Amino acid sequence: MRLGLAFTVLLSISSAAYWFSSGDRRNLVVWDHWDVVKPGYLYRSGQLRPEQLEAAIRQYGLKTIVNFQVPGPEVEAERAICRKLGIGFLNLPMPGDGFGKEAQFREVLKAVDDPARRPALVHCARGTCRTGASVALYRYERDGWTIEDVDAEMKRQTYRDEWLPGYVYAMVKDRPNASTFEPSIIRDDAPTATETSHDR
Amino acid sequence: MIADSLPNRLIQRVRRIDRKPESLQVEEPLRAAFTLASAIVVVGFFLFAGTMQEPGESEARLGLASGEGLAPFGQVMGGWDPSLAPGRVLVSQIWRTIEGGPASVSAIRGPETLAALALGLTVAARLAGVMGARAGLFGLLAILGSFVMIDRSSATEVELVLGLSVFAAIDRLVECGSGWVAGLWTAAAFLLGGWPAVAVILLPTLILGRSGTSLCPGLLLPPAVAMAGWSAWALSVAKPEVWASAMTLPLTQPSAWTLAADVVVLALPFTPLAAVTLWPSARAGWNGPTRSLLVGWIQVATIALFAGTLIPGLAVAAKIPVLVALAMVSAVILEQAWEGFADSGPRRSVLGGGLVFGALGGLALVGLGGFLTVAQPYYRGVGFVLIGLGCATGLLAVDAIWIRSSRQAIRAMIFLAVGLKVAHGGLYAPEMNYRMGQGPWGRAIGQHIPPNWPIYVFHRWSPALALATEHPVRQLPAEVFLKDQPGGVKFVLLQDGEFTHWPEVAPPLTKVREFQDERGRVRVLARTEGKLNRRRDSDRSSPP
Fold first, then answer.
1. What is the C-alpha separation between B191 and B520, in angstroms, rounded?
2. B445-463 residue pLDDT tens
3. DSSP H helical segments within B404-495, as ranges?
């Protein structure tokens, strides 16, 4: 009887887990990889279903949607939704691994910097690499975060490789550099001629 | 007189050693097993992931003070902070000196963790002395497995280093009566938490008048000397207003009307078991030493609870005695339940409590774990663990009713405590750090300034942000005073408007970097003009 009870509970949990995971694969349970980067400024997600995108636009007052996926039916559907709701749409197609061009990522900064175009939602297919890279540049350029903190945030969003934080950091214009740490070359006195000949 | 008192002391000591009944003598292998289990509780349950949460505002002020010199008050951003007691700051300063580097979270949480550990082990030792090793293990679990010890952040408003000194003084009073040792602990409590800590220690003595406890010179002299010495030191280095502010600050706190409820929640998940003592048959099962220990602590906790609720400023110091008493009573009930209650009333209470908390807690853990597994990929691993622990908790709780086993109910509660620990360390702490922490925002500023260089500010910034910069922060009353500060180039942290309207009479500034904060507001890091003349790496250990 006790075993029967345990079996029933475990069966119920397994069934619920299967139902939830199958729903999750179709993006029915939650908004895929949705998160708030900075309230009123920037949000991020994976590919949302049309009704989810409309709900997000209304709930968060989004004014710009940035899609990093290559043009296709999904992108066109999203563009149509944005036109219908009267908000901006920006398509920045780039490889799925997130190694986009600097100019593309800077388009996101322009959108977020403009009070008329923010808050913005950036998203790709899963909300990890391309979205993560664009958010990383925002963290570096606007918030000034360290590379370690940006790396930690990307890992939190399930980015498991090591490359993108460093790749994006190379694009940053305003980082700790030689103009802050002056003098940039500090050297000891030159060795004497005797010491030099002795070394030889 | 001394000759008379010595044999009496010896007799008392022998009685204390001799009072353990024969039935409590535990066989060596079993004792080793309990010791191993205690080590697992301490390391796996308590120490693991115990210091990962970022500090709150009060903890950050302590962290900033640990980076300054020793003084009668804490020093935060270049000014006195009368709310920081010198003893507590000194403990963090010692930790920081041993650890090296700038003030950090570990200088705050490290001493707190060690204090909590000492407190837990002492409680366990006391219980093991009167009821056996298993009761000690239950005591360790009840205190280290409680919400307050799992969290250990400023949100709980419990100061564990101060708490340890309060506990040690009261423990000495309950065990051995008044004397110099209790007096020295009371003096330490004063230096760690001010007069409210002394009041919490002495009030029970004054009101209860237990045999062996009195307001003798040994108990009163050390705190009086500590108070006089500290006052003289404070008045010699600071204005009398600062001393007066430190003395009256506790009285400006509001009364803690919810103290009782707060403590009960902080002591979860084992607290409900303390209610089983309401059954006379449960209390009848206590042997003499157990009764003496528990009654002493219950009396102290009751007085502390009333005093902490009614007298402003006493709540923080009063929490620890109440928490310890709850943990002790809960542990004794756990031990009695494990052995089996003769009466059905207490047994049913334990089973009912196990079912309610086990089933509800299990469901909550499974629900949370399921949500994380499906919706939060980063926490999927934690989610799976929580589902497993939740299932075990719920099934054990139901099974306890099924077979009417108190032991099964206790196992369910232990699984629930482990589940809470995993949920806190695996989800709550990292989420709070990510959502609310000032770490990334402070480190963003600090990385633009050479090591050990101070940052000057002109109004109060968040202490957590200041601590996260990993630089000394100095608040000046006005911009013109910047030129009077030692060293060459100075770094200043300003709001956008402050930088725009920088006065002409102040030293001219160059913008180093602009930052947005977590709400999009702009901060500016600027520096005075001139060459930085950064020291070589070998000179970094000393400030400019």
1. 42
2. 999 998 888 999 998 899 9
3. 406-423, 429-436, 439-446, 463-468
Distances (CA, A) of B412 to B42, B226, B288, B354, B415: 19, 47, 30, 7, 5
B106: which 2 tokens? 């570990």
B25 burial via Cβ count (<10 Å: 0-12, 13-18, 19+): exposed
Q: Pick from B62, B162, B166, B155: which is nearest to B106 by CA? A: B62
Work out the number of other CB atoms within 10 angstroms of the CB of residue A192: 9
For B211, other C-beta atoms within 10 Å of its C-beta total 7
Instruction: Find how far residue B349's CA is from the centre of its chain.
Output: 31
Most A CBs within 10 A among B365, B402, B532, hence the mutation to make, goes to B532
Here the tokens at position B80 are: 């006195």
From the list A37, A41, A35, the residue with the least C-alpha distance to A64 is: A41
Burial A130-165 (b: 16+ CB within 10 A, else e): bbbbbbbbbbbbbbbbbbebbbbbbebbbbeeeebb
What residue of A is the nearest CA neighbor of B439? A149
d(CA A76, CA B12): 88
Q: Specify whether the CB–CB gap between B328 and B379 falls below 8 A.
A: no
ipTM confidence score:
0.83
The structure's pTM equals: 0.83
Chain centroid to CA B149: how far? 7
Summarize pLDDT for B216-265 with one digit per residue, the tens: 888 899 999 999 999 999 999 989 999 999 999 888 888 889 999 999 99
Residue A149 to residue B444, Cβ atoms within 8 A:
yes
User: Structure tokens of B537?
Assistant: 């790496």
Q: Which residue of B has its CA nearest to A140?
A: B444
Angle at B153 (CA atoms; ends B148, B157), nearest 5 degrees: 70
